[in-house]
Amino acid sequence: MANGEAVLQAILARRSIRRFRPDPLPREMVEKLLDAAMAAPSGNNVRPWHFVVVQDAGRRRQLSQVHRWAYMVAEAPLAIAVCADASSTEFWLDDCSAATENILIAAQALGLGGVWIGIHQSAQYQEQVRQALGIPSRYTVHCLLAIGYPAEQKPPHGRHDPAKVHWETW
Ligand SMILES: Cc1cc2nc3c(=O)[nH]c(=O)nc-3n(C[C@H](O)[C@H](O)[C@H](O)COP(=O)(O)O)c2cc1C
Q1: Is the CA virtual torsion 11, 112, 148, 102 positive or negative?
Q2: Does the CB atom of residue 144 touch ligand 1 within 6 A?
Q3: Using one digit for the tens of pLDDT, what is the confidence trace for 23-48?
Q4: Is residue 2 predicted with pLDDT exceeding 90?
Q5: Ligand 1 atom closest to the CA of 15, numbered from 1
Q6: CA 130, CA 134: separation in Å to the nearest integer?
């Protein structure tokens, strides 16, 4: 498969994976995910992101209790908290979202699975993550990612919806 096709395949096949095998991820794999994250575009190239890489089971258990849709962090061998220096740019949300999606696509390409867990929408969720991971108060917690070898299979959506596309004019 040509390289471009492989990238497209990873994008189209990606699904939210919430069941994981317990096997830890090799360090090189984690570094590749972080490479992908930091290759994302950012407004004015400010790159406001910080990443807290969490493998410790006790910390993951704490994170899994932040809200009811974060439970899978306890099972996944790797969690990443995506944080932002939001005072540095009005684009922090866009920038962190781009980095987060890059991680999910890279995970898919490496044979891993993952899920994006929303955090920034609630000051309380953010504070719980800050407390669990010792994140200084001036940083915004954008989201968590739970990542690992998948223990569930999901078919691609094939979700292209022509009704959402407006050619030339709406
Ligand atoms: C901003 C955002 C927040 C999300 N938050 C959660 C979450 O807290 N917990 C969860 O299990 N999934 C979460 N998801 C994953 C979505 O539920 C998922 O992407 C959606 O249902 C579509 O399924 P798919 O990713 O398999 O295509 C989130 C996704 C996005 C983009």
Answers
A1: negative
A2: no
A3: 999 999 999 999 999 999 999 999 99
A4: no
A5: 26
A6: 5
Residue 113: partners with Cβ closer than 8 Å, 6 or more residues away: 15, 17, 20, 107, 147, 148, 149, 150, 152
Instruction: Name the pLDDT band for 82 (thresholds 50, 70, 90).
Output: very high
Residue 154 CA: nearest ligand 1 atom is 26
Q: What structural domains does the chain harbor?
A: 16-152 (3.40.109.10)
Please name which of 117, 132, 100 lies closest in space to residue 18, comparing C-alpha atoms: 117
Of all residues in the chain, the percent with pLDDT exceeding 70 is 99
* Local structure of residue 159 (DSSP, 8 states): -
Which residues, in sequence order, are CB contacts of 166 under 8 Å at separation 6+? Answer: none
pLDDT digits (tens, 9 = 90+) for 132-165: 999 999 999 999 999 999 999 999 999 999 999 9
Q: Is the C-beta atom of 44 inside 6 A of ligand 1?
A: no
Instruction: Answer whether 121 contacts ligand 1 (Cβ < 6 A).
Output: no
pLDDT band, very low/low/confident/very high, at 119 (cuts 50, 70, 90):
very high
Q: Which strands, in side-by-side order, build the sheet including 49-54?
A: 49-54, 78-84, 140-148, 113-118
